[in-house]
Amino acid sequence: MNVKIVNLNKWYGDVHALKNINITVKTGMFTSLLGPSGCGKTTLLKILAGLESPDQGEIYFDDQCIFSKERNINVPPQKRQIGMVFQEFALWPHMNVFENIAFPLKAKKMHDGIEKRVEAILKNVRLEGMSKRSPDQLSGGQQQRVAFARAVIANPKIVLFDEPLSALDAVLRDEMRFEISQMVKQMELTGIYVTHDQMEAMSMSDQIVVMNKGKILQVGTPEEIYNRPANKMVLDFVGKSNWFRCGTKAIRPEKIDLYPTGPYKKVSGVVQSVAYLGEKYEVTVHIEAEGDWLIYHNRRVQLGDQMDLYFKHSEVIHFSD
Ligand SMILES: Nc1ncnc2c1ncn2[C@@H]1O[C@H](COP(=O)(O)OP(=O)(O)OP(=O)(O)O)[C@@H](O)[C@H]1O
Ligand SMILES: [Mg+2]
């Protein structure tokens, strides 16, 4: 289902939580809302789900207007065909896996073929044979898969995620990122995923919406956001970068070379710090004219070493102010 959000505004008293939000999400797309704490991500998800009402604006699911302040339209949550997965898995502890997953069907009085549907979805989320277990007999990742199964059992068109992986450890989180985006694609759902983790947004999404303080800073593919950030805040928020002293130009560390090939610009500096990351060394070099820059090296260098750095002019990212 296509989702279109038009000129949305939301206030909580004096707090302008969402400022003129415009987003289009195409059917089958996986979109992340990325931004720091308090920027309005959860508020926007709740508004899509119908759990909060905006003060201005309109929302369309395909051609149907599901919310319009001006026209007094507000389709209730249960009629929006939305599934939700939250940070706290929020499985009901007194129900087993089967009962947890079947709950939305029972709530909607869809009693026909419940067993078959739960069985099919259990297969999808790779939890076959676990229907009788209680949530406390499952690992964190398995619990999160149950939460996902419960969110999609009633055939929603859109599934909303609010930081669903933040309670998991790093290894499991990596695995689940891939699984979640795969499952969403397989089931041909439209996914909207809230996170403040840029790696998560970059690795999972077709489209990223970068937000700060209730505003959208940029909408684009992960590559566009990374390579052509719309402003300084996006650049600083996504990936690492080195600023030139003038304050309007920056360069990513991986674009800086240790040897010249072709027409390059050269800067020189002194090694300030070295950190070993396994596949590479992260080195800070103090450059007299520019300040401290981060670069990557494939071998250990010593503090105080003199280094020459080379970069192509075309790799420099420019900002107008
Ligand atoms: N019910 C509420 N009443 C008053 N203010 C609220 C309410 N809910 C959210 N806010 C405020 O609205 C702003 C956006 O909150 P929101 O929960 O959407 O942020 P978020 O991006 O999800 O942050 P986090 O990453 O910490 O979850 C914040 O300033 C928050 O304090
Ligand atoms: Mg939140």
From TrEMBL:
This is ABC transporter ATP-binding protein. Residues 3-238 form the ABC transporter domain. It holds the Pfam family TOBE_2. Transmembrane segments: none annotated. Keywords: ATP-binding, Nucleotide-binding, Transport. SUPFAM superfamilies: MOP-like, P-loop containing nucleoside triphosphate hydrolases. One of its GO terms (molecular function) is ATP binding. It comes from the Bacteria.
